[in-house]
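User: what does the whole thing look like in 3D?
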Amino acid sequence: MNKIWLIISREYLVRVKKKSFIVMTILGPILMAALLVTPTILSMQDQQNRLVALSEKNIEFLEPLNKIENTKFTIITDEELELLKKDFSQTEYYAVLDKDKDQFYLLSDQQISLSVKRSIADKIEKIIERNKLKLAGIDLKVLESSVTEINIQTKIITLDGENINSSTEGSMGIGFITGILIYMFIFMYGTMVMRGVIEEKTNRIVEVIISSVKPFQLMMGKIIGVALVGLTQFILWIVLTMALAALAELLLFNPNELISQANSAENTEIMSKITNLIGGINFMQIILCFIFYFISGYLLYSSLFAAVGSAVDAEADTQQFVVPITVPLLLAIMLIQPVMDNPDGTLAFWMSMIPFTSPVIMMVRLPFGVENWELFISMLSIITGFVATTFLAAKIYRTGILMYGKKISYKELWKWLSYKG
Amino acid sequence: MADLILEVNDVVKVYGDYTALNKVNISIPKGSIYGLLGPNGAGKTTLMRIINQITAPDSGSVIFNGEKLQGKHISMIGYLPEERGLYKKMKVGEQALYLAQLKGMTYSEALSKLRYWFKRFKIIEWWPKKVEELSKGMAQKIQFIVTILHEPKLLIFDEPFSGFDPINASIIRDEIVNLRDKGTTIIFSTHRMESVEEICDHIALINNAETILEGSIENIKNKFDNKQFEVTINEDNLLESQEYTIVNQVHNVFNLTINDNFTQKDVIKSINEKHEIILLKKHTPSIEEIFIKAIGNE
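Assistant: Here's the predicted 3D structure for the full assembly of 719 residues, as structure tokens:
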């Protein structure tokens, strides 16, 4: 036991001290924070005030158009319009709105932003629509009172008769993100285990080590050490991302503005929308299951990756063995969409029971609600699954690490399974 | 029979349809340097892996120091495999400490012993370097230190001199003899027959998964005594006689074989009666000759 700890701590420390680990750990959250903050910055920059000139004959649109945010409209005479059409560079105007017969034109010396074009078109459309309705004799008050907006609230009735707000959109989002995260974790750290095994084999240190410890101890020490590296990186990412996002918010937004925003009615509305989106989801269950499937899925696959690493002499030879391992993982990713469409269907059920796809698929299903017995069987099946793969992988591993210069086939691997300790 | 540190009895190891060891028997006396010889693919490495418990025999038994070989013996055995290496990116000192602790030593014990050996080999300045900065010979020295550091009762060296220049090879050879003198038993596998002759007390010859020869160097040489003499006399002509047969002649130097039913004494007496003997030398076969002959007989 003492020896396996030595191995775990070496595997962990060597990787955590690596420059690439430190760079990735710092860069990851910066990229994530950039992803979160960039849209806000972009939308803020878009809020500059523009001045748009409107030709005299379009004066009827002036008032409604001025309701468009961040854009001011002024009327110009036809002479001014003619001048502008010839030379636009010397004016303060962002664009000129003109009309020729039934066609509207926006003239500018630069590419007009899509949002400006769309909001102008929307306004003009509405005005013309209303004018036509008025001409047809329809009372505008009647029209306004007829506008309705329907929002269906979905609710789940639990066993104790309580109604819980539920949201399909929120469930899909959470299911998708957690499923993808598990896939990434398994793949990244599984290949890390494989590379570690190949390194020991090509360095020829493996026989020195297994004269002191059992091959199984070396393999498990590596798998657990790398798992801890993965957990460390994820935790650091989450902590650093949150810290960076908080910092960015402090720097970019005026704190007073923040407080006033928080008090505004609009904000409470957003808050209640968010609560509606995720209100029905059992977060405690999702977090616990995420950790469980995270670890068990990784254990299941990383022992197979270790076996592949032991069977080859160089990373270039791994392809033929890695492909069959990644196929079930890719299949799980491709099945996310169909499972979301029907989270309680036969496909979803079986894919969340088979240990090779269940880590991803079960995480996708969970936010929609999964029966406890299903969860229980799925967990039992993945535990059985990783015990079995670890057992088989260990047999291949202990033969493979001592084989050099031999091209390994599947038939050969099959034979290794029958060798006695 | 002498006190044995290791007994291998009827050990069989089969990989699929390939037999690596077929009822191999060897007995290693305490405090000896035991040469394990044999052509490539004879099964030496498999035998060494079994002794190190890297792999288990299909049948047969291994007795270490009077007990059945088991997990607790790992720390009493040191093994320098033929395929050996170090983590390239790790620092020398850090790595030596790690490997020593894996053998069951405590951190402080490992540290003080490593310091002693690094100073003895005058390589203490390598301690903070990365292994990839060292030459092959330098790395081999570190592996040698790590193998013997925990003062095992039994040391197993597979081709210990490969990668060393003659000066360093002789340093290592002296250390091996030194360890034997302190009571350590050494199993030693090599293709360099002259080093076997120099330092081994006992040998075993393995061929095609079987032991074909085992015992002390002396006994084996006696067994392979080809009853040949080299005699130099005062003239170019040696008379034929019933006690011996002349194999060849160069000037006044003759190679003779003792004929059956006669002894060394009879031959000397017979020559002495008719000629004046200037030089008489018994021809002992070298280990290399024995090796080739024994395998040729198979």
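In plain terms: Residues 258-262 of chain A have pLDDT under 50 and may be disordered. The radius of gyration of chain A is 31 Å.
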